[in-house]
Write a sequence for this structure.
């Protein structure tokens, strides 16, 4: 397995590689991928810089035609790609298909946008003069991503960046490199010219080389808050545009008047879908005291029936966690939780049968979690749910907002007034009413406040603000010098 640079498949110049391992079965080595360094990144950036010359001049709707074809190919290869993704990052086939569907939606959406990419014109303050503004591509975009959405998250950045006329150097996570190569195959087949899209595999060294390269003008990052903020501070020093999608500590509120069955379905999906490894996963459940005990009882009963296993098996509902390091981190947090709350389900690694060969954790629920608890405050990124009691809507909102993160939130209630108060008061980039904290759609702005982001939004129309710069144009057809602010006012 190789890097994809300037339309060709290449090893790392150093010849170094890393292994890609199936998290459901560590005996299954998927392949060796290039462990790239700054020299490989330099090759890719050079190819992307050269390709930018023609790509930015290609009419935007023509670029859109290629993206639409890419969407068709993603759809055609959906089953095959879903199997590849599940093998390398573990989530169930149903979920990897959903991941690909997001890329298909994004491809069609970005393609359509290439016929808009609206600028605007405004009246001039002078006679016989016209003002207009339009979006320009920026140049080479460095895209660095996590592994939990190996196709969807890169597609949110890469496809709009290409639609705008930028070129891309993509450094996928070393836990999901195979999916990235399929991404490249699909764009190549769709007709993306050599150099417009490049994949450089590797770890922090390659990611850092992208950030540092002087010809990379924009960095689009999805990953942990620690890595993202370090990248942002470096981009600040280098005066580069940077868009960050980082960690979360998302909460679902259930008020006393809620449809409890619906709220139960919601939290099971939000907390244990993707094995809790979504930036939007429900990791905190805030229950009104009147329904707390009954809801916990129903929740524990339902969660104890979840089937943990290899994501390729049709019955599996909860796949493995991504790797040994993450397993250890989750088990460490479970240990911490044992000391600060009450474990009512799970609380350990799952090594039943063949699961001993992988990295599985039993769905875990803690109750009596105080707002001071570390498991209430820190991102765990695994199938671990903290339950906290609230006494009112205001109390619930205060608990949700008592977080360093601000990605997604959810409230279950039949009271329309309570729902609207929650929409206004919850300090998150996304709020769901009577739905779980997960479920973003491609045509809506996506991102978070506080420790989750830096003010940008992917998805929808807002992503085009990340990947374009504005040009303002003044066209004077008066045939004489007209001095703005001076000739049309008495001085
Ligand atoms: P991570 O920060 O360890 O790695 C993310 C990417 O950054 C990887 O490609 C990695 O190789 C690269 N990287 C690491 N160090 C780097 C450096 N110094 N310079 C440049 N690149 C570097 O994150 P992870 O463990 O892969 O992913 C899990 C995290 O991602 C969680 O915190 C999760 O919440 C977050 N996430 C956020 C979103 C979102 O949209 N907000 C989506 C998915 C995942």
């Amino acid at each position: 397995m190789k890097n994809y640079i300037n339309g060709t498949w290449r090893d790392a110049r150093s010849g170094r590689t890393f292994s890609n391992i199936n998290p459901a079965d560590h005996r299954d080595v998927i392949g060796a991928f290039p462990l790239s360094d700054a020299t490989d990144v330099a090759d890719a950036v050079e190819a992307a810089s050269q390709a930018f010359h023609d790509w930015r001049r290609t009419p935007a709707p023509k670029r859109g035609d290629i993206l639409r074809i890419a969407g068709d190919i993603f759809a055609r290869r959906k089953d095959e790609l879903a199997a590849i993704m599940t093998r390398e990052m573990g989530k169930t086939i149903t979920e990897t298909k959903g991941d690909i569907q997001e890329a298909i939606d994004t491809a069609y959406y970005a393609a359509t946008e290439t016929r808009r990419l609206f600028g605007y014109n405004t009246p001039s303050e002078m006679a016989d003069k016209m003002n207009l503004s339009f979006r320009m591509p920026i140049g080479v975009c460095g895209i660095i991503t996590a592994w939990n959405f190996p196709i969807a998250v890169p597609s949110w950045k890469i496809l709009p960046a290409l639609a705008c006329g930028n070129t891309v150097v993509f450094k996928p996570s070393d836990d999901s490199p195979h999916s990235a190569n399929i991404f490249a195959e699909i764009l190549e087949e769709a007709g993306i010219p050599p150099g417009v899209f490049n994949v450089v595999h590797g770890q922090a060294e390659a990611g850092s080389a992208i950030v540092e390269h002087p010809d990379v003008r924009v960095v689009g990052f999805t990953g942990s808050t620690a890595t993202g903020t370090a990248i942002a501070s470096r981009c600040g020093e280098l005066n580069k545009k940077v868009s960050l999608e980082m960690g979360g500590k998302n909460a679902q509120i259930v008020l006393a008047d809620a449809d409890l069955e619906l709220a139960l379905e919601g939290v099971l999906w939000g907390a244990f879908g993707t094995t809790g490894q979504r930036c939007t996963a429900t990791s905190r459940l805030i229950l009104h005291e009147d329904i707390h005990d009954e809801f916990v009882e129903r929740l524990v009963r339902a969660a104890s029936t979840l089937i943990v296993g290899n994501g390729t098996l049709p019955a599996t509902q909860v796949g493995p966690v991504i790797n040994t390091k993450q397993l250890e981190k989750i088990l460490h947090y479970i240990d911490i939780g044992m000391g600060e709350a009450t474990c009512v389900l799970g609380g350990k690694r799952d090594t039943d049968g063949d699961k001993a060969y992988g990295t599985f954790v039993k769905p875990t629920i803690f109750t009596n979690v105080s707002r001071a608890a570390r498991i209430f405050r820190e991102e765990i990124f695994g199938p671990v749910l903290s339950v906290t009691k609230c006494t009112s809507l205001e109390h619930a909102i205060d608990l949700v907002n008592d977080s360093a993160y601000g990605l997604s939130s959810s409230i279950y209630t039949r009271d329309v007034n309570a729902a609207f108060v929650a929409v206004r008061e919850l300090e998150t980039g996304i709020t769901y009413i009577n739905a779980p904290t997960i479920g973003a759609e491609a045509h809506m702005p996506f991102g978070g406040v506080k420790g989750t982001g830096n003010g940008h939004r992917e998805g929808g129309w807002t992503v085009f603000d990340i990947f374009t710069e504005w040009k303002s144009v003044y066209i004077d057809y008066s045939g004489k010098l007209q001095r703005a602010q001076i000739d049309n006012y008495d001085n």
Summary: The first strand starts at residue 3 and ends at 5. Residues 144-149, 153, 171, 173-174, 203-204, 207-208, 211, 222-224, 227, 230-231, 245-248, 279, 379, 381, 407, 452 surround nicotinamide-adenine-dinucleotide (CB under 6 Å). The two ends are 70 Å apart (CA to CA).
